[in-house]
Design a protein that fits this description.
Strand content: 15-25%
Shape: globular
Largest sheet: 8 strands, mixed
Order of helices and strands: EEEHEEHEHEEEHHEH
Helix content: 25-40%
Structural class: alpha/beta
Number of strands: 10
Number of helices: 6
Distance between the termini: 30 Å
Length: about 200
């Protein structure tokens, strides 16, 4: 399975877990913290993973022997777009793959397809179609345009990832294409409540 060389992964792990009732990223899933699952999937297709956490949060454990590092958001509770900009400011590769720390069942072949589309198309972002919309995570971004757009949006008071995608040229991989690689739609699964585990 070929993939572009040199992409960096960003795993967003700064949320408050309000619906979960406790730190969901530390919750056990199949013997490992939930966060580890996302990191391990992303690092399969990226040379390094940046884990963005909140400024005052406890530093999470990282999977051993994995090229991953933690960066802290600059301000508390500013939303996922601010966390993403923190991550984008910490990388020096042209492409980044972004996922949530609560996405334990990312499918590697889907992530590779997203990176390949980003490398071949004249776009700033790649997302997955979901019915008549597309999902804001996981996404692949071209670092420079995404960093510039995120900075402007945050300055204007925007906090949503979807607003960033609305500001970029996005290639959307249609459902038949990515579902052929992931028939169970596992790549889009995230954990919001204890029952989701």
């Amino acid at each position: 399975m070929s993939r572009p060389e040199g992409a960096t992964g960003i795993v967003l792990a700064g949320g408050g877990s309000s619906r979960f009732g406790s730190d969901k990223l530390a919750a056990d899933l199949q013997g490992f913290p939930l966060l580890h699952h996302s990191i391990l999937r992303v690092v399969e297709v990226c040379r390094e993973v940046i884990v963005v956490i909140s400024p005052g949060g406890a530093e999470p454990s990282l999977p051993p022997a994995v090229p991953a590092r933690i960066v802290r958001d600059t301000e508390e509770a500013q939303g996922p777009l601010a966390g993403l900009l923190t991550g984008l400011s910490s990388v020096n590769t042209d492409l980044v793959l972004v996922a949530g720390g609560d996405m334990p069942t990312l499918v590697t072949s889907v992530l590779v397809e997203m990176l390949n589309v980003a490398a071949e198309a004249s776009v700033d972002a790649v997302a997955l179609a979901d019915a008549d919309h597309f999902r804001p995570l996981p996404i692949v971004l071209r670092t420079g345009p995404a960093r510039d757009a995120a900075h402007i949006l945050l300055h204007d008071g925007e906090r949503r990832l979807r607003a960033l995608l609305d500001a970029l040229r996005v290639a959307v991989i249609d459902e038949p294409t990515w579902l052929a690689l992931d028939p169970e739609r596992a790549t889009l699964r995230d954990i919001d409540e204890p029952g989701d585990l």
